[in-house]
Structures are given as C-alpha cells and as structure tokens.
Please model this.
Amino acid sequence: MSIIAHAHTGFIPSLRRIYALVLRHTYLLRSSGPRILELVYWPTVQMILWGFITMFLINHSSWIAQASGVLLSAVLLWDVLFRSQLGVSLVFMEEMWSRNLGHLFVSPLRPTELGCALLTMSLIRTVIGVGGAAFIAIPLFNFSVFSLGLPLLAFFINLIVMGWAIGLLVSGIVLRYGLGAESMAWIAIFAVQPISGVYYPISTLPEWLQYVAAMLPSSHVFEGMRSVLFDHVFRVDLLMHAVLLNVVYLTAGFVSFLAFFKLARVRGQLLHVGE
Model:
C-alpha cells in the first residue's frame, strides 16, 4: 500500500489536511484587521506597562538594576506561554462558535490532524502577537529581548510547548462540557503563573511550593532566563528539566484531547455544541 493510500486509511496524519485547516484559519486571520490587532494589542500593553515599571524600579531597586531587562523579558516570555495556550483554545472554539465541527468531521479529517493544525495556528498567532510587542520594545525602552541570543529560542520552544499542552487539555474540556466551560481558556494558565517564578526567583516561594514549581516546565525556563540575564550563564540542566517535563505535558495534553474528543463523538456532541 502506498504511503498516500496508507495516510488515507491508516494512522499517519495527512499533512495536506492539516495544511488545509491551517489555511482556513490563516484566511480568517488575514481577512480580519481586528483579529491581528488583538493579537498584538495585549502583549504590547503588557510590555509598555512593565517597561515603565522597570524604568522606575531601576532607580529604586538594586536587584532590577543588575539586569534592567529582566522584567520586560519575563513579560514577553510569559506572553509566549499565555498566547500559545490561548492560540490553541481560541482557534478550536472558533470552530465550535461557528458550529463547524460536524462539517469538519464528515470529511476525512482526523482528531490528531485537527490537533496538529491547532498547534500550527497557535505558533503563527504567538509569533505575530509577541513578536510585534518585542519589536516595539526596542525603540520604546532601548531593550531587545533578542539580545538573549540562542537561549531565547530554547525558552520560546519550551514555553510554547507547555502552552500547547494546556491548550489541548482546555479544548478537550470545552468540547466535553460545552461552551459554558469556555472561560477555562482565559483563566487556566493563570493558575500556574504564581508558581512559575515569572517575576521573582522560585526561592521566594515557601519550600513545599518549590517542589510543586519544580514540576512545571515554565519555572525552569524563567529560572534559566534569570541565570542568563544576571549571571550570563545558560543552565543546560534547567533546559533538560523543562524539555523532559514538556514531553510528558504534551503527551498528556494530546491524550486528554483525543479522549475527550472520542467521548464527545460517542455522545453526539460534535453536532450539538452549546452551553
């Protein structure tokens, strides 16, 4: 059996169908100025707010003065995590809002291919949103997050993968419990923010909470970011912890999404999306 024929009937995801779904959402994005503006708007507002707070604290805090870009870097990297999770959840919910899931799945599209398309759209949306804010920070605060160099790429990949994992889980929950659970898309990620050490070192947390933080890829990423900015050292051990945790997170995210999808299909919820 040829590879193409096997892809049609077997378990190999079809890049063509994934691309078709990505193209559908890219056209939606491209044809809507407000959608693109919204992608850039919130990361930019956050970046400006924390930029001015940083300028104030530089003169009033010796810790900030040691690495003036630490708060701006934290804001932009946190938005990578937030936007990547939101990118998966919102694109999925757009299919629910337009009651299109039933139409999609009378086609040969498989749930895994839908998942891959969601991750691709999340990447596109995150790059547009956070990338725009990062470039605006250069003339506004004379700070470039790109000065982190190659470690920035490692931080970006790990945060976006964690965001994908949470986004897939949230999408599965919304599919299973209906649009009444859509607020999960906005609030779920903030449950991990206090223990991710975004704006302060993990050592600030109570000792027992530090063990919980160690189970989050994001806490290793933000500790690694501070290590680069303060000590000019890239901690490979932190990177490896984040990568290994992300393998578990992404696998769990995909498995839960597929399990919720299977349950929704059995119960006929793909055609009856509501509150």
In short: Residues 111-141 form the longest helix (31 residues). Residues 1-7 have pLDDT under 50 and may be disordered. The radius of gyration is 20 Å. The chain is about 75% helix and 0% strand.
